[in-house]
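Many introductory courses stop at the sequence. We go one step further.
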Amino acid sequence: MQLSIITVNYRSWGHLEAALAALQEDFPDDWEIIVVDNESDPEAFTPFAARYPWVRFIANPANSGFGHGCNIGVASATGEQLLFMNPDVIATCSEIRQLQQVKAQHDLAIVAPKQISAAGKPQKVFDDFPSLLNQSKILKALLRWFAPGKFKDPRADHAELTYCDWVTGSVLLMDRDDFDAVGGWCEDYWMYVEDADLCRSAFNAGLSVAYAPSVVMIHAHGGSSRLNVAVKSMTKLEVIISKHVYTSRHARGFKRALTHALIIALRLPLLLFASLLNVLTLGQIGVLRVRARILVGLLAHYLRVVRSGSWLSPRALANQPRAKSL
């Protein structure tokens, strides 16, 4: 196979149906699609998979997160190149070929296309590596104002190929050899920031990462992570936890401790205030209910960190080889 498309699905059947429809008509013989269905329900999985005999479906009984699901897909992949693509992304075979051409033309290790909403609104595709200085939007804005050449604005209208620290994993193309060389997706993350970690590994190996605005794909962002209040609060909680995980993996000494402290200081006061408002409004406002659930989950997580010394979330810990053997 020349290309393996890896998609991790979580109850996004409507989005996945649209994604497969966009690819089906002229799907090349030397490409393959592998869909890993997290927390797979046979009642939904079996009839859906039967409609697409040209797609390889893998039923994963656990909701083991994005990176772990991608690694499951790659284990069954035979393509020389790997395209990781969310189920809520609409891309034609022609657009994928364009992305391959950009990658080959510029000898890139990792490349991502421009992504827009169904209404045509551009989305953030790349950014700087997380660090002590960019943990808040205000800090990021100041960095981009003082040093725009070094700290590129990911929401600016970039017309040319843009080399960057990391690109989003929602649509990400790389060679299988490079994927194996950097060790694949890090399973210390359950969801979010694992794409920055993958690109950090590529950077450490001397490989290039770039954003290609000449190729445009539609992305209905959040198709799997905004199903309801419980799922939305869980995924937003995991964003914060993943920031801590990245810090524990890549920061050192006093800078590591200070970054952890800054992440906490930037989030806990706002979550506490939102939780108080949630009580005063009797839980009638959805966004406040989400914030209140995040606060409870985050406080529980910090208590686990004190007890265990590990920043990993319980969901990520379930994916660790040691945890599986116990």
